[in-house]
Design a protein that fits this description.
Elements lengths: L2 H10 L19 H41 L5 H11 L4 H15 L5 H24 L4 H9 L4 H12 L1 H16 L3 H6 L8 H8 L7 H35 L1
Helix pairs in contact: 1-11, 2-5, 2-8, 2-10, 2-11, 3-5, 5-8, 5-11, 6-7, 8-11, 10-11
Length: about 250
């Protein structure tokens, strides 16, 4: 399972040319591929980072209060709302992308950071609502009622009590939303037509030409594109396990 990862790293450290002629281990690593990748793809990496962080912020900003309302407030038709949230996860991405293309063309959101952030949030918001609501249902009502008795309003109770207690589930939802957005290819391919705003997933696809001989640069770009997601998973692993377990117990 890890062989493709090993070969990606190995090829990124080989000299430019046919990777089939490279050895099984880069005894004399050549970092020219990384220099080329940073020069050619650095801007696209920053674009992906901006879009991913924007999508995380928007998704959590919308999903956290929605999840709290669905978990603890007397909302009418809550089952219907949750069913609608689940249905959104079943809609094929290509259907959403095609629908958004027409709307974006009218609104001038094609080839924009905001357009990609909104598009990627269509997957992040429902997922975050499901994760956060599952956890927030486990928060004892006594804690919320104690804050209300002490004079805190609904907004302050949510901000000062519910959100800190839900830190693990927030990190879990943020991590998966980041991964959804970071690996997105469909929305990037459909909603960007110029090089003004081009995420790294799409730029790698276009980097692989029919006559390319700089496979070390292509593989170095793939390594650089994989690094943020890998680092986040390692750093947030403990919080993700805690958040997922608490939701499962509930």
């Amino acid at each position: 399972m890890l062989f493709p990862v090993y070969w990606m790293v190995n090829a990124s450290l080989q000299p430019a040319g046919n990777t089939l002629r490279g050895g099984w281990f880069p005894f004399h690593p050549d970092f020219s591929g990384y220099a080329t990748a940073l020069r050619d793809q650095g801007r696209n990496l920053v674009t992906s980072l901006v879009v991913a962080l924007g999508s995380v912020a928007l998704s959590l900003g919308l999903a956290a209060p929605a999840a709290y309302a669905l978990a603890h407030l007397p909302v009418r038709g809550i089952n219907l709302v949750l069913f609608g949230v689940l249905i959104t996860q079943m809609v094929p991405g290509i259907a959403v992308a095609n629908a958004l293309y027409s709307a974006y063309n009218d609104l001038g959101l094609l080839n924009s950071y905001l357009g990609l952030i909104l598009a990627d949030s269509t997957a992040g918001v429902p997922f975050a609502i499901i994760i956060l609501r599952s956890f927030m249902q486990g928060i004892p009502r006594e804690i919320i009622e104690a804050a209300r008795v002490d004079g805190a309003g609904r907004l302050r109770t949510f901000r000062s009590v519910v959100l800190p207690v839900s830190a693990n589930s927030l990190i879990t939802a943020a991590l998966f939303t980041f991964l959804f957005t970071w690996s997105d290819f469909l929305f990037a391919l459909t909603l960007t037509t110029t090089e003004t705003v081009r995420p790294i997933t799409l730029s790698i696809y276009e980097y692989i030409g029919a006559h390319t001989n700089q496979w070390n640069a292509v593989m170095a770009t793939a390594v650089l594109a994989s690094a943020p997601a890998a680092v986040l998973i390692v750093v947030a692993q403990r919080y993700v396990a805690a958040g997922a377990t608490n939701g499962a117990i509930k």
